[in-house]
Amino acid sequence: MGPKLTGPFSMKKLLTLMVLSFFIVACQGPTPTEETLEDIPSTDFAPAIDELLTGTADTSRDDVTLLSSSELIDETSYGFSYGAESAIDQDLSTAWCREANDLTQRWGIDFGETVLAGTVGIQTGFARSEDIFAQNNRVKTAELHFDGELVETLEFEDTYDMQFVDLPDWPVKEISLYITDVYPGSKYDDTCLSEVDFWSDYVQEKDADAAQIYYIDEKADEAIRPISINNLMIVPTDSLTYCGSFNSKLYTKDGDMYQSTEENEWGYNTVFGQNTNEYSTTDWWLEGGLGAAFTAKMSSDVTEKDVFTIRWTQGKLADMETGEREWSVYNESTAYPQSCDDGTLYLSMEQPSNDLPGPFANFEVEVIYEDDVIGSTSFNFVQ
Ligand SMILES: [Ca+2]
User: Fold this and answer.
1) How far is the CA of 335 from the centre of ligand 1 (A)?
2) Ligand 1 centroid to residue 207 C-alpha, Å
3) Quick check: 346 pLDDT over 50?
4) Fewest 10 Å CB contacts: which of 43, 91, 226, 333?
5) Per-residue pLDDT tens digits for 38-73
6) How far is 178 from 143, CA to CA, in rounded Å?
7) Distance between alpha carbon 278 and the CA centroid of its chain, in Å?
8) What is the distance between the alpha carbons of residues 375 and 383, in angstroms, rounded to a whole number?
9) Ligand 1 mean position to 295 CA, how many Å?
10) CATH 2.60.120.260 location in the chain
């Protein structure tokens, strides 16, 4: 049985076996048992440092030092991190991304000890999804450096699959990749590396499918995604027809529908929200408490699996003189986007029918994704 270089105990075994070899050659004596070998002090036979190599699997991801020439700054409010550590977190949705004007384009790792690096699995772009991958640059060629010396130039295929490279079988403490060419993104000029993985089982087994399955099963649901919504509106339920479209000539009153007029019998015009915190005066009239629905067109990054929370708030008129209102949340519900024939996604939900606020109540709807309010709209009555 050969030494398996997987930990301190194995190291001991390695030493043990080296000692064993020495004795077999030098002494021609009987083969010692494992128990007697354990008693032999190893200090007399200390091997050179390079003979104490461990595989990178013995080196914790937490103990390595990462090096990068630059890191893209996230200028959105979504919370992306493009740091070098995003390339070793077993998560295809995160990536090290260099600044666009970075000419060095280096990502490196210092293991803190001399190792045999074995196989590395590289996801050559921003791999949160295949679409995002294609929209951003993918690494085409990169110089591989061992401890500051050029080893070879790696050439990658333009594929979403994780690609595997058998690294040279010699001791190394610090490995760097210098990106020298890319396949251009269809939409963006960002160059990213989602993974440079020395550790995972699927890397050792060179199994790109397993890498993908691990991502989908363990990480994809938690991925930060740039979810946004537009055309967020509150409309009368009766007017809502299909996938966010509605009949703009109808309004509701006492459960009946009417053709809209510029001014209803009480002299109210309707105001309802369109986009966040914006209002537009239209022909609509919506009786407080009856059949309000909201509808929102979702960004292309949303899927039917995304879960949103819809929070309805009412602001009852507390003081007719001052117009002061009392705001309170009266419902929160879970909602999923619906897929429409034209390929778009819509999110819509009718106002819950219980505990309806009466006339002269304002409404507000907030759309919440992973605890963040990502959009809101409201309507009120104007006298
Ligand atoms: Ca990652």
Assistant:
1) 29
2) 17
3) yes
4) 43
5) 444 444 444 455 556 778 877 888 889 999 988 888
6) 5
7) 30
8) 27
9) 34
10) 57-222
